[in-house]
Design goal:
Length: 429
């Protein structure tokens, strides 16, 4: 039995490593923004364009939409085994970028690859995890997502003397890891739950899956996830891609541009490990989410009230780091796997992820200009987004801790719909 559990943890780590290179590419790009702006004379509008089409936003959303459909049709393994080669190809444009168009193209290709990998890897993690450890296994993927920025930002600090050449090394290590991950994943098995679902629905048309996804039974879950995670992600996209750039623009000490964001992600890792992975399978998930949402609002409101000052930014980083570990993104990964059956799970995850990331891309077009001219207004808008995410999560969050995916799928719609009275009152298994 122990060998089986060890094998599942190994698969979770290999699937979750895509999160490392996803987040790593986002923050590597954020560190490079100030240098690219100086070298190529980029405008705030062009920087917003990079943010909008980067792995952080629109291209990742499109990739997730396409990848989710393909995962449900052809299997998780076919997608997550080969999409990393496409990622490495796109990353080469960033490694050797010598013109602004290469930066945009590189981020578009990288975003398509990481977006396609999200529904494949997240579905696989949920489908092979033990029923009483699904939150813990999902947490591993989030742990790796936070590790990517920590590794990249700390490395960027020590590579500062080499300027843009040092940044190229950051992109190069992500490309090499993507190629290595392709070979490591080749030994992984296909999801057993997906194989059983395929056998049970042999000959089912893909269009039928789409009709089922947008039926009343599942449409409410999609709207809940897209709204809860989407509003939070408007803040997270600003935080992950623009924070180092804004620190540099506000003339804070040079070390803060890399070490403060790295500290946020490092604190988040301890929060994931100590809170989300430890408690999410055992306690009231709505309560955990609510505590995190309240901390997020307080942390962002500090910047809105007191401004972009060093001591305030440090306090902001601490609060947001703790809150982020057991907040919207961790629960989005978990709930987006639980609220849909295996046959349409990846399609649903890809569709909701696409809505969120494309929305972030549109928002990213405005962030640099707004931050440069009126950061206080930007901070209050972001605080409002976090309030909206928290309220939506508190009202409609599901309670599925301890239940198998089959038990959740078999529940009547009135019990499994987020926020329903029956769902909130059933006992924890």
């Amino acid at each position: 039995m122990r060998e089986t559990r060890d094998h599942k943890w190994r698969n979770t780590i290999l699937a979750g490593l895509a999160n490392y290179i996803d987040a790593g590419s986002i923050v590597a790009g954020s560190v490079a923004l100030a240098l690219w702006k100086e070298i190529y004379g980029l405008s705030d509008n062009f920087i917003g364009l990079i943010g909008a089409f980067s792995a952080n936003a629109i291209s990742a959303g499109v990739g997730a939409l396409i990848g989710g459909v393909l995962c449900d049709k052809f299997g998780r393994k076919k997608i997550y085994q080969y999409d990393m080669l496409f990622y490495a190809f796109g990353m080469l444009f960033l490694v050797f970028a010598s013109a602004p168009w290469m930066i945009v193209l590189g981020f578009v290709l990288v975003g398509l690859a990481v977006g396609a990998d999200i529904p494949a890897s997240w579905s696989l993690i949920a489908e092979q995890a033990p029923d009483d450890k699904r939150g813990a296994h999902s947490g591993v993927a989030q742990l790796l997502w936070y590790l990517g920025p920590v590794a990249v930002l700390v490395a960027a600090y020590f590579l500062q003397p080499w300027g843009i050449t040092g940044i190229r090394w950051l992109f190069a290590h992500l490309a090499v890891l993507a190629i290595a991950l392709t070979f490591l994943r080749s030994r992984m098995r296909e999801s057993q739950r997906w194989e059983e679902a395929q056998a049970a629905s042999a000959g089912q048309a893909l269009s039928r899956n789409w009709r089922e996804l947008f039926s009343p039974r599942y449409l409410g879950a999609m709207l809940f996830l897209a709204a809860m995670y989407g509003f939070w992600n408007l803040w997270a996209g600003y935080n992950g891609f623009f924070t180092p750039f804004l620190i540099a623009q506000n003339n804070l000490p040079a070390w803060t541009a890399t070490m403060l964001p790295a500290s946020y992600f490092l604190i988040g890792m301890f929060s994931i490990l100590g809170i989300f992975m430890t408690l999410s399978d055992k306690v009231n998930q709505r309560l955990l989410f609510g505590i995190s949402a309240a901390l997020h609002v307080v942390g962002m409101a500090l910047l809105a009230i007191f401004g972009f000052k060093l001591e305030i930014v440090i306090l902001h980083v601490i609060i947001m780091g703790v809150a982020g570990g057991f907040g919207a993104q961790s629960f989005f990964q978990l709930w987006s796997a639980e609220l849909f059956p295996t046959a349409i799970r990846s399609t649903a995850q890809g569709a909701t992820f696409a809505i969120v990331r494309i929305g972030l891309g549109i928002w990213s077009l405005a962030v640099p200009t707004l931050a440069a001219h009126d950061f206080t207004t930007l901070a209050w808008i972001l605080t409002g987004f976090l309030v909206a995410s928290g309220v939506i999560g508190l009202i409609w969050a599901p309670r599925n801790e301890g239940k198998s995916l089959e038990e959740i799928a078999a529940m009547p719609s009135s019990r499994r719909t987020p926020g329903s009275r029956a769902a909130s009152e059933r006992p924890v298994a």
